[in-house]
Amino acid sequence: DEALRPLGTRGVRLLATGDDPVLTTVRAEVARAAQVARGTTTSAPVTLALAADALAAAGPGAAPRLRTAAEHAIALAERPGLAGTLGAQGFVVTRDEGALVVVAAQPRGLLAGWHHLVRTGGDTSGEAAGDLAVHVPAQAVRMLDHWDNLAADSPMGPVERGYAGASLWFADGRVRDDLTRVEHYARLLAHTGINAVCLNNVNVHARESALLTTGIDQVARLATIFRAAGISTYLAVDFAAPITSGALDTSDPLDDDVRAWWERAFADVYATIPDFGGVVVKADSEGRPGPFAYGRTHADGANLLGRALAPHGGTVFWRAFVYDHRQDWRDRGTDRARAAYDHFTPLDGQFDDNAVLQVKLGPVDFQVREPLSPLLAAMPHTRLAMELQVTQEYTGQQQHVCYLAPLWREALDFRPWGPVGGADAAETDARTVADVVRGTDALPGGLVAVANVGDDPFWTGHPLAQANLYAYGRLTWDPTLDPSDLLDEWAARTFPQAGPAVARTVHALLDDSWHVYESYTAPLGIGFMVRPGHHYGPDVDGYEYTPWGTYHFADRDGIGVDRTRATGTGFTGQYPAPWRDVYESLETCPDELLLFFHHVPYTHVLHSGSTVVQHVYDTHVEGAAATQRMRDTWRDVRGVVPDEVFDRVAARLDEQVRSAAEWRDQINTYFWRKSGIPDPQNRVIP
Ligand code: GCW
Fold it and tell me: Which CATH code for domain 2-135?
């Protein structure tokens, strides 16, 4: 609430009528700001106006200044093309003799405008140099998927891959009675830019499956809270729900009874939650049921649900994370990285308009370093969303500091058809991944991420992991934001009284922490090397002889997965030019992805000039040392941030230092024992 003070001090006039729940929220925020400022109203006011009813809201006998502000707002909104541009979620800001005017066409836009003002403290001098600054979200869908289960005794605990305590909303098999924290959470998400949440784990077990049917009244309580924050509610559903509900003995997508079952189910859902967003589906993946059991395609499956949702305006997010998790490690021909592309590209054009294919960033699984999933460049006739993992399953589990916004920025900026420029520039498709998933106005895609919060007092277990949640939300709105700047925004919001020392420390710890984490864990894009099951800490061969398809193939001579067309699995061929060739060739393959694409001798010389084995030794020693410096840096803010925050972060940094040393020693020892190549500085354990 501290952040509201500058606005409260200026005095905010809200020109909007009606009892829309989002407007009611804006009204409450404005009142709260006034309360925080406690009557210290000074100068230049701020006007927030909903274009359609600004004048009505000003009222017939309005003071001339209010009337002028309303007329100004209306004039703005009537500028040619602007209403269309703003859509439901955008807003426009202008300065008028020192006063600020924010106009939106719809309540959600007005709420976004409010949060923009809060973030900037009402100071838009930087951007409003011209007379108008138009703000529209880059992505129409900005979603968080919660992998929350109904109870602690659910398979995988209360939150699958959750590192921040139990679910914020489920406990003991039902929705919690006290949802106060959910209200705070919804407010926080709205501030970052999120506009959709899926409430439950994509691995939908029997109990959770009933949320869609007998549990829908409970879900409605949550939907009411999120609605008021401008956030739509989704549920993950079990493809076999017609069976698990006890109604039918099949979930064949082409069966009439199955179709009727879903139609009835969604009719009931919408009778209770009229603006229900839709569903997220994990099918034929890691043991979940799906259309394959009936010899049907994933387009059949997605369209079954899509058609039952369509009359109500709902959307199905269908996950592309489909691969054989029971493969034979002896079989070098099967390549998990290929799976999503192989399954889904033949179906391009077959998905209905209200189906979105949700594709993980990388072709394997949320590793610290992966190339972009080639599927994102191979479905021109399908709505696509990219899925990221904010929860740090493979990036330190919120024990380690690992700020992921730079990773996401790299993916969003990636140009699947190659860099711009060069002789054939005119011929090149210059779109970035952010452009691809944006889709069109009529058929948008979006961004989705697995959430990292729980009922932990700091929301995210590691207090500094909040920065990932904040940055994700902000990047969904604007993928060109600088990850480093986002840290300033986050630190200012989170430690409003703490001043520059905190900002400095947060930067020193977080800016480069993704690279630090990468440097002491699995090297050069090889991935995994984690303990099977829980995925925390090093275990180089942990997955090597398992059915999961995540191998490194280290032997006495070398390491890496040959995914070339020439001699390997042919995965490089799933990329358009130029990447298919860039990755194919040892000459051009980037160092950081070398072992993802190639099997090379330990003595192979990288572009950096180092050999593979020497690179491993050096980066692991340096990475572990960097964590010690991070721990020292944190001491600078003792007494500056609240003690509980200081202590929690300090304890986690101790664990990060311990764990990084363990990673360093296991990885370096492993490479030394396999290769027999000594470290000239003798830093390996024999
Ligand atoms: O990374 C893997 C996780 C699973 C998860 C799966 C998925 C929800 O280890 O816990 O299941 O991805 O994304 O479906």
Answer: 3.30.379.10
Q: Which atom of ligand 1 approaches the CA of 535 most closely?
A: 9
| Spans of all domains in the chain | 2-135, 142-494, 517-561+599-675
Strand ranges, E, within 97-246:
99-104, 133-135, 142-145, 170-171, 174-175, 196-198, 232-236
Dihedral sign for Cα atoms in the order 651, 659, 536, 143: positive
45 φψ region: left (φ > 0), alpha (ψ -120 to 50), beta (else)? beta
pLDDT tens readout for residues 230-263: 999 999 999 999 999 999 999 999 999 999 999 9
Q: 626-678, pLDDT tens digit by residue?
A: 999 999 999 999 999 999 999 999 999 999 999 999 999 999 999 999 999 99
Pocket of ligand 1 (CB under 6 A): 147, 160-161, 202-203, 282, 321, 365-366, 393
pTM of the entire predicted model = 0.97
Q: What ipTM score was computed for the predicted complex, to two decimals?
A: 0.99
Q: Which fold has domain 142-494?
A: TIM Barrel (3.20.20)
Q: Which two tokens stand for residue 652?
A: 């986690």
Domain 517-561+599-675: give its CATH code. 3.90.1330.10
Beta carbons within 8 Å of 160's beta carbon, 6+ residues apart: 147, 149, 201, 203
Minimum-distance ligand 1 atom for the alpha carbon of 366: 1
Q: What is the pLDDT of residue 421?
A: 62
**DSSP bridge pairs for 448:** 143, 387
